[in-house]
Amino acid sequence: MLVAYKFNGYFDESEDSDCLCIAGVLASTHHWPQFEDAWSAIVTEIGMPEFHMQECENRKGFWENWTNLDDRRAVQQRFIELFVKNVTPSPVGFVVAVDLAAFRGTVGPKIKSVHPGRGYDKPWLYGLMHVLDRMLMAQRAYSRMLHTDERLDLFFDEKDEFEGRVGGMLKELKQETDYPIGDVSFDDSRDQPALQAADLLAYEARRFITEVVLRVRLDKGVREQWWQLMNAKLPGGANRIRAEHWDEKALQRNINDVSVVEPSSEEGSTPVQTCDMAVRWLTGRDMHNDLN
Length: 292
Known about the structure:
This protein has helices at about 30-45, 55-60, 70-85, 100-105, 105-115, 125-145, 160-175, 195-215, 225-230, 250-255, 275-285; strands spanning about 5-15, 20-30, 90-100, 150-155, 180-185, 240-245. It is of the alpha/beta class. The radius of gyration is 18 Å and the shape is globular.
């Protein structure tokens, strides 16, 4: 049975030497089948095992013989339009970009001191917790509105280290808090179109942060793919994709003051939010906060 306000969360990441991006796709079980079927239909039509944005862009794997960039971009566009032209309020995308150098000098040591020996002082875990925060808020808000107790089920790609660290951390988080986390699953992305969608968001966000925000390539502007995703709208007019960039200043504030929201003037991104819920647990702030 499909429950209108029961949600699933799907996660993937993209990383280079400067930046790591964690992306999450929050999907209502009520609205998700339409998106999933459309995504799977494109995969089947093209004849690929699954869609990975980085492989398509760089002619890797399935795309090795697709020498015409316009042909590859046309396929990319079809997947992007599933977000841009979607008329339902689900899915929603959340992206968190973490400055790797800044993380090592700020939040990383703080997490290590709070959870010694756990190996939780990793930028991808920190980014994951921020994305999880946004999803938990959405699930809790709908549950309160409808007087239900729905849990947010989480899905990750099968990766040995990723699975071990995430599984242990989420188990501990569930034991120590009342956060509405349900089942945690690790699946093959070929069987989960939402993991492929999260992969697309993570890749495009990481390209934007690296090439535009960090000015690694001064000749690069905002990629058309990311511009479309960042301007995709929900039925009520809000952004469908919500992105945050945690640079050194934001990371330092995460330790010292969790009550400030600082507007961002960066083209293609949204304001950094205050840290809450799962991030507070990870960094040792308000560990018994009950989301009230």
